[in-house]
């Protein structure tokens, strides 16, 4: 039996693909930055927050330029081999572009750049999967800081809790030594 034409998924989003022109614009702007700036650095990041990065980028806006995006597009703009590199030896930079990485173009001296990157540190709330920086101990008894909806989550994390008249209650269990 033929497939029904009625049972087709219909996309409701109106987004358009960026296309070849967008990638060519990135390649051209990176090549222009190669001509405008003396130094190029590859930086890597982990759990980067967009707002914090914007603040850092704004601080260095007058002396430098950042590029984030597809590693392959950035590699193509630098040149992947000796044959297609834009400047002599710059294809070595494209070999380092792996994972979460970006390009930083600047006219600042190396010591100043290292100082800026080492000095800039912003604290923010932890995301899922990040390791705890502090040890928290919860006493036995009612835990007013948690709502009743948090009880299943706390239990899943291995905490000996129960609901007592709508209040999360931490209790001592004979099996606590097994929880670690």
UniProtKB/TrEMBL annotation:
It is found in: Cytoplasm; Nucleus, Nucleolus. The keyword Phosphoprotein does not apply. Keywords: Cytoplasm, Nucleus, Ribosome biogenesis. InterPro entries: Mrt4, Ribosomal_uL10, Ribosomal_uL10-like_insert, Ribosomal_uL10-like_insert_sf, Ribosomal_uL10-like_sf, Ribosome_Assembly_uL10. Its main location: cytoplasm. Associates with the pre-60S ribosomal particle. This is Ribosome assembly factor mrt4. It comes from Nelumbo nucifera (Sacred lotus).
């Amino acid at each position: 039996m033929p497939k029904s034409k009625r049972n087709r998924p219909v996309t409701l989003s109106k987004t358009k693909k960026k296309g070849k022109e967008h990638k060519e614009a990135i390649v051209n702007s990176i090549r222009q930055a190669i001509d405008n700036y003396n130094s190029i650095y590859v930086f890597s990041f982990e759990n980067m927050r967009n707002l914090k990065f914007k603040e850092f980028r704004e601080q260095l806006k007058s002396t430098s330029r950042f590029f984030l995006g597809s590693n392959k597009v950035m590699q193509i703009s630098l040149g992947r081999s000796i044959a297609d590199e834009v400047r002599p030896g710059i294809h070595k930079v494209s070999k380092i572009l792996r994972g979460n990485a970006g390009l930083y173009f600047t006219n600042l001296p190396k010591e100043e750049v290292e100082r800026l990157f080492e000095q800039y540190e912003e604290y923010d709330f932890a995301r899922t999967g990040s390791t705890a920086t502090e040890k928290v101990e919860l006493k036995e008894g009612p835990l007013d800081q948690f709502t009743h909806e948090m009880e299943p989550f706390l239990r899943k994390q291995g905490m000996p809790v129960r609901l007592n008249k709508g209040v999360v209650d931490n209790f001592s269990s004979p099996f606590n030594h097994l929880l670690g």
